[in-house]
Specification:
The protein has about 325 residues and is an all-alpha fold. It has helices at about 5-30, 35-60, 70-85, 90-115, 120-140, 155, 165-185, 185-195, 195-200, 205-235, 245-255, 265-285, 290-320; strands spanning about 160, 165. The chain has a two-stranded antiparallel ribbon with strand order 1-2. Helix 2 packs across helix 12 and helix 11 (about 245-255) runs parallel beside helix 13.
């Protein structure tokens, strides 16, 4: 029995947790306000929207696709839900229900274009992104929509006990995501399709149908984030979700969800979401310029993707 410690194995298992801990220590040193209870709750509230959308995004990536329309869906739902309440006179409950149905339909449309039109997911979701932003600006005429019932604040600003409502919703969605991926045939099919869709098809899995449902779930969860954003800001704006999809993608890749598909775990994805939440909050607290923040997050994404690709390449080399 060897007592030698395998540093690479330890880093692979706990590296992301160590990175999160290091970031927390760094930002606490740079600004002690970071580690106050009030700010920690704020970080959790901020990361909840990314966490919820990341479950849908994780499903999409594991089955071998990508969804760059999540930020646009957030903006579109933000605007549509606001318009339904203020211009159509609907109750918040009905407006939310219709908005989520619309977001799921957008996701399903992505899946249809990918599976039936045989279009690359990158192109499909990028085109849908542009279309949704355009429609959002047309609906709002580049202005914000406000004046919602005060009860609508509860979703984005309320508390259940000591926990913010968005955090409770994130925990519920993450639990659902874990259950689906680990305890259902649907989850196994998602992994199988991402691993090798030809083998999955030969095994009797209805690959195209699963893919359409996965994209639909991606749209639905992004829609939930859009509703929370609207409730938190109490203002419907066409640019609310700008850059949101990159935060989700970075969080997932940081969390070990392979950009090549076929692998990924909810717990590690949560760690990735937490890192993005800490980065977003900490960089603001230490007064880092917004444009510099985007550069930093871009570098983080490139590094995470590079690490994923190198690990995949090394693994393939060892198998050969």
């Amino acid at each position: 029995m060897s007592g030698k410690i395998d540093g690479k194995k330890i880093f692979k298992q706990y590296g992301i947790t160590l990175v999160l801990l290091a970031l927390c220590i760094l930002f606490t040193i740079l600004n002690p306000v970071f580690f106050t209870l009030r700010n920690i709750m704020n970080v959790m509230r901020q990361m909840s929207m990314i966490g919820i959308a990341s479950v849908g995004g994780m499903f999409v990536i594991i089955q071998g696709g990508i969804d760059l329309s999540e930020g646009a869906v957030v903006s579109f739902v933000n605007v549509v839900c606001a318009w339904l309440m203020m211009s159509a006179g609907m109750s918040p409950e009905l407006a939310i229900l219709i908005s989520l149905i619309v977001s799921a339909a957008i996701g399903y449309l992505n899946g249809v274009l990918v599976t039936m039109a045989k279009m690359p997911p990158l192109i499909v979701t990028l085109a849908v992104q542009g279309g949704l932003y355009g429609i959002s600006y047309i609906i709002t005429n580049s202005h914000s929509i406000a004046g919602f019932p005060d009860s609508f604040r509860f979703i984005g600003q309320g508390y259940i006990g000591f926990l913010p409502v968005p955090v409770v919703l994130m925990v519920l969605v993450l639990a659902i995501g874990w259950f689906v991926l680990n305890k259902t045939y649907f989850g196994r099919y998602i992994y199988a399709i991402g691993g090798n869709d030809d083998v999955a098809r030969l095994s009797g899995i209805r690959v195209n149908r699963i893919r359409r449902l996965v994209y639909m779930l991606g749209g639905l969860f992004a829609g939930v984030s859009g509703v929370i954003f609207l409730s938190r800001l109490m203002s419907g704006q066409a640019n609310t979700g700008a850059g949101f999809e990159m935060d989700v993608l970075t969080a997932l890749v940081l969390g070990g969800v392979s950009i090549n598909g076929g692998s990924g775990k909810i717990f590690n994805a949560v760690m990735g979401v937490a890192i993005i939440g800490v980065l977003n909050n900490g960089l603001v607290l230490v007064n880092v310029n917004q444009h510099v923040q985007e550069v930093i997050k871009g570098v983080v994404l490139i590094a995470a993707v590079a690490f994923d690709c190198l690990s995949k390449s090394k693994s393939s080399g060892n198998e050969a």
